[in-house]
Structures are given as C-alpha cells and as structure tokens.
# Entry
Amino acid sequence: MADTNLMQIPGHIDPLPVPRPNLVDGVTPREDGRVDLIGLPRTQIAAMLTEAGLDAKAAKLRAKQVFHWLYHRGVTEFEAMTDIAKAMRPWLAERFVIGRPEIVEAQVSTDGTRKWLLRTADAHDFEMVFIPDETRGTLCVSSQVGCTLNCTFCHTGTMRLVRNLTPGEIVGQVMLARDALGEWPNASTPSSPRTRGPLAASLEVGVKPPAVPDQVRDDEDEDEDDDEAGQYTSNGRLLTNIVMMGMGEPLYNFDNVRDALRLVMDGDGLGLSRRRITLSTSGVVPMMARCGTEIGVNLAVSLHAVTKQVRDEIVPINRKYGIEELLAACAAYPRSSNARRITFEYVMLKDKNDSDEDARELVRLIKLYKLPAKVNLIPFNPWPGTSYECSEPARIRRFSEIVFEAGISAPVRTPRGRDIDAACGQLKTSAEKKSRAELDRLYAEKQAALG
Ligand code: SAH
Ligand code: SF4
# Structure
C-alpha cells in the first residue's frame, strides 16, 4: 500500500513535497517528552501502556477506560478518570497528555459563524470554522497547514508551505469544538462548568443561528439514516455535521484523515455518523475509491469547470487527473447512491465558468456518467490580491435554473462568515511568511533541542 502521507504531484503542478518530518508514529513530539494520546487508536494506547510497564491484560483494560474518558466524555485531565485507581492517575499524567490544538484567536461573525486560529505543538497555524444554522451546526475541519495544490481562486492555495496535520490535530479540532460549545455526550448538563471544559467560558455561544442556509448545507436532512455507530445525534446539539473543507487537500493526507475520522465515527469515540461527515477533494482520483471503502463518508468534489481548458487553469490538478477520469471515479465511488449523492462544488467566477453553455455542459456530463449528484453553486468569496470576481446574482440564478430544469438540484450557497474571512476559500494563516528553507532550519533546530 502506498504511503500516501508522502505523496506528491510531480512537475509544476505541485512543486513542493508534503513535509512530514515531525510525524513520528503520527504524533507531534512535545518538548516535555510526554505523548499526546489524542489521535491514537485504542490498540496504540494499549501498546504504549504496555511499553510503560503494564502487563498486556491491564494495558488493554486501561486503554479501554482511557479511550472512553478521552472521546466519550471529553475530559482533559487524568484526574477526572474516576474509575481508574487514584494512584494510577499521576502515573499516567507523568507519561501522557490529553492535548488540544492551542487556540491563538477566536472570532465570531455577525452571522454567527465562528473561526478559530489554532496552533500545533510545533507552532504551525491553521484554521477551523463552525457554521451554525437553523437545523444543523457544521464544523469545517482542516487537514493540512496550507495546501500543496494551487487552485487559482483559493486563498489557501496561495500558501507556499504545508504540513500534514496528524490524526490528533484533526480529531482535536472536533474535540475543541465540543469543548467550546459545551456539548460532550453524557454530560450531566450541557452547560455545567465541569463538562464544558476550560475553554467554554471564553468561547460563549452567544449568537443566534441565522435563518439562512450555509454553503455546505445539504438539501436533505439525513436524520432518518442515522443508523450507524453514532450515538451522537443532533437532538439539541449545535455540532451535528463535519465537513473536511478547511485548509488542505484531505486526500493528500489520506492516512491521517482516515485515522482521525475513524475516531470521530467510533461509537465509543466521538460517535458521529458517517452520514453526517463530508470529505471534499479537488480530484485526487487515485485515492477516491479508498476514501469510499476505508472511510465511507459522503463525497464532495470541487469540479468548478466543465472544460479541460478552464479546469486546467483554475484547478491545476486537472492537468494530472482530467475531468473524464474524475467523473469515472465518481461513478465508481463505493458509497454513492440516490440517497447519498455526490456533491459537485462549483465556484461562480465571473466570465470564467458561469455561462449558460457551461451549465448545460455540466448537466450533460452528470447525465453521461449517470451520477447520483447534486451541485452546490458557491458564490466566489474574494480575498486580498485575487484577480477573480464573483458572478452577478442574476447569472448565478440563471446557471442554477438550467441545472435545476434538468432535474439536478443546484442550490446557491449563501456565503457565511465573510466578514471574518471564514468563508470557503478564504482561510489562510501566516505560514507563507517563512520560506521553506527557514521552516526546515527551525525544525532541525527544534529536533536538536529535543535531543
Ligand atoms: N481542498 C479541498 C477541500 C478544501 S476547499 C477541495 O478543494 O475540495 C473547500 C471548498 O471551497 C472547495 O470546493 C474549494 O474549491 C472552495 N473554494 C476555494 N476557494 C474559494 C473561494 N475563494 N470562494 C468560494 N469557494 C472557494
Ligand atoms: Fe487546496 Fe482545495 Fe484550495 Fe485547491 S481549493 S488550493 S485543493 S484547499
């Protein structure tokens, strides 16, 4: 099996390999030498406890208990693990930590969207966005710091530097959101200080969800399909859905994204149904089948153009995996059906991809490949320095009508969180300010300091 964490696209499309120097067994090393348990599967927690001196049977039992406290109850201290012997709790705390990404900044938009600037233990910044609306709350999770791809309309794509996030840093975003929203399952009361965690007080949810759809909302509510591992339902909760649509290309960090999402979907873990999780890819064709079989979440594909010429320009991975290949992979996606359609994301760029002809070609392609599909029309979100403009509202409406008239759902997404640069494609941290060489040097220094 290919090591997808090292995968790179050769040639000018993707001149930078994905650096992964800090990933030792999928864990970011800490200066204090302790190991962060977040992101590790039960078996690895057990292996670490064995290595620390427990016999195999005790390690397995403790790992099960610890796992439950970490993911089901959301505790952030070993002292809170009341069914573990009192003497053992400091023993655990000496060796392990229960980490969360550090919050550098938290912002709230006038429309209730919240954005967090987060930092890894080795000081890389990335972003996470929460989008509440009337019927659901969607967390937009990052998979990488920056992105190696460079879609011309995407702010993240202008970041030159990238590192894959670890499983812990990915699942840690969901845990942080639950901390902030104060809604761990089995909590005695969602707002009690004990269960809300230390961050909740400073991240009060005070903004009423607006009555407008957000850019990632599905047409159907899948509540009735929630028959899988997830014990965690939308009842009264704010965080109901997850989209892998933050910074980065999740299928270029496949192993870590898969391992993180398995923890999110685990009934003894975060317990969110796979039907409430959507992974968006720009079209990493060779990884799409594995995404279906090994993760099994809903698929969204950033199509954005229907001709080779335009897609080559705006989504350059198209030069490597063309539209036909991409649509064939969509047709073969293991989990798609009429009940679980593939979402095609289509950003509306003025005079670039928004003509009637484009809309008709989109319909033709979807029908040609017999795809169970819906289309999300995303008004282009501007960012400083971009040369693109958003299509006129009347143009977007006409485009949408043409697709709708052909029997394919094509809602126009209302941009959310634009005022705090939290909308699709606006995420970008200051990582580009350091050169690649400089980051490598900083990393080498840090490793030397760690011995
Ligand atoms: N890398 C993945 C997921 C992250 S991007 C992907 O490309 O699919 C999430 C979505 O936002 C993608 O559909 C992306 O194309 C879209 N997007 C990027 N920049 C945008 C912008 N400026 N305005 C609107 N949508 C944008
Ligand atoms: Fe990367 Fe997605 Fe942005 Fe393209 S749209 S640069 S793949 S994050």
Residues 189 and 436 are 47 Å apart (CA to CA).
